[in-house]
Amino acid sequence: MTMEAIVVNNLTKHFRKAYDKTLKGYFISLIKREKRYKEFTALNDVSFSIKKGESFAIIGKNGAGKSTLFKTLSGIIYPDSGDIQINGKVAPLIELGAGLSRDLTGAENIRLNCAIFGLDKERIEEVYPKIVEFSELEEFIHTPVKFYSSGMKARLGFSIAIHIDADIILIDEVLAVGDKDFKKKCYAKMEELRDSGKTLVIVSHSLKPLRKICDRALILERGKVVEIGEINEMIDKYQDEKKEKKAKKNKKGA
Amino acid sequence: MFADIMKYKELLYFLVHKEVRIRYRNSFFGFFWTLLEPLGLMVIYTIVFSLILNVDDSAKGQNIDHYFLYVLSGLIPWTFFNNSMKKGTKALSGSSSLIKKVYFPREIFPVTMLLSNLVNFIPAFALVIAVALIVGQPIYWDQLALLPAFILLQSVFILGLAFLVSVLNVFYRDVEFITNLLLRGWMYLCPIIYPISFVTESNNAMIQQFEWLYFLNPMAVIISLYHGILYQGQTAPLEYVGYSIGITLLVFIIGWVVFKRLNRRVGEVI
Ligand SMILES: Nc1ncnc2c1ncn2[C@@H]1O[C@H](COP(=O)(O)OP(=O)(O)OP(=O)(O)O)[C@@H](O)[C@H]1O
Ligand SMILES: [Mg+2]
């Protein structure tokens, strides 16, 4: 038995910024002999490891590469170099509306996602009522998801992710739109999951709850790891940095 | 590939079921609705080509009775192909909300598309046989016994092309538009509105010269195989059937390899 849930070594990912996603655009740029894409480094030599049963936070500004990191961890995006080891089943909850198919109803989306994560029929019937109950969406469960509000999508996504028997749960900023009661319920659930031995990796811009839930944190800035360490220390550091920058700006302005 | 898909059979079942259910929301009526296109085309082609252009007079010389049935027995398999290609181009790009957020083998999407179209096609072809029985067209049972093999050949060809166009359409959105354009021309390169003898027994030197090229199109051969169930002498020569099987396998392999290669970047481009 390995102790590590996630081990990431020297992970690097470049994105091509495509100008035009058509053959027409391709031929035009071919004729004009212009460079078709700019490279952009979204993840730059990222290494870290997360122990089993640990709660880990990833903090960083918009565009730092947090969602990109989650996408490579869950296999949606292939890294250019570096390697990822994952021990256990991953439930990714990436950005809003995670894994929800717009045209399907809430009920169908629950079944779809359970099937995607390899639950068999019996197990699906077992967890289905639990998911519905946790999301508190009984009334809208047969409505297509495209008519859901952002908060409702977040509820459904979160409820599914915590019920598919995953060992590792990646939560990316999905609670930002939930209402106060639901957020509270989710944070409580996260603590419960952590105590039951699941590995949680959380991306969030609301830092306060992280202090309570997480053990350690990683600060990501423009695709690079700045520091990894104990949660309170990291959050303080991250906030200090922000304040410093603000102070500098103010000085310049003055 | 098949091991992967078997692992996700629950998911595959769910997706196919969903596709079919959406189409058949009103079960009986839904089935006829899917037949509306081929039946409508059949009426149009029968009017244009038999009443106005008199194709069926010359067809009668080739032992083609019931010209409308001849058209229909080619149009139904063609519609299967046509719909599969149209849906195939969107197989990945139409599921972007899922592909961006969770990972599972993406070949499931083209396979789902194929299976759900197959569910439409088989009863539709049964209807063709029923019509043949009603109007008294002889049925060649030895050929009918080979029907599963014909369907398999066509399915492999469709799946190979679907792999190719579905993944290309993620990178270049006008692949969809080009595919639709090609499909229109492609139909006339298959023996649907004219008997195959127009090609094999033509007096035109140019057609004679390019006969081999005509039969390199697997769809022409496949349609002719379906015709052979109802019309003697309408099957493409055997050596071309052999070629078609080879080309079909080649298309499948190319489609699969391209799909696997480009699949790596689908998650970020879509
Ligand atoms: N599919 C893509 N193609 C090209 N560039 C991308 C793609 N996805 C992300 N990027 C770029 O990579 C960078 C990191 O994006 P990412 O979504 O990971 O940020 P983030 O840390 O999650 O930000 P936020 O806090 O706003 O969620 C951004 O500059 C973004 O423009
Ligand atoms: Mg993000």
UniProtKB/TrEMBL annotation, chain B:
Subcellular location: Cell inner membrane; Cell membrane
GO cellular component terms attached to this protein's record: plasma membrane
Transmembrane spans: 28-52, 64-81, 108-135, 147-172, 212-231, 240-259
GO biological process, one term: lipopolysaccharide transport
A Gene Ontology molecular function term of the record: ABC-type transporter activity
Keywords associated with the record: Cell inner membrane, Cell membrane, Membrane, Transmembrane, Transmembrane helix, Transport
Topology relative to the membrane: Multi-pass membrane protein
Superkingdom per UniProt: Bacteria
Domain ABC transmembrane type-2: 29-262
Pfam families, alphabetized: ABC2_membrane
Principal location class: membrane
Family: Belongs to the ABC-2 integral membrane protein family.
Family matches, as PANTHER family: INNER MEMBRANE TRANSPORT PERMEASE, TRANSPORT PERMEASE PROTEIN
Protein name per UniProt: Transport permease protein
Organism from which the protein derives: Marinithermofilum abyssi
Source species taxonomy: Bacteria, Bacillati, Bacillota, Bacilli, Bacillales
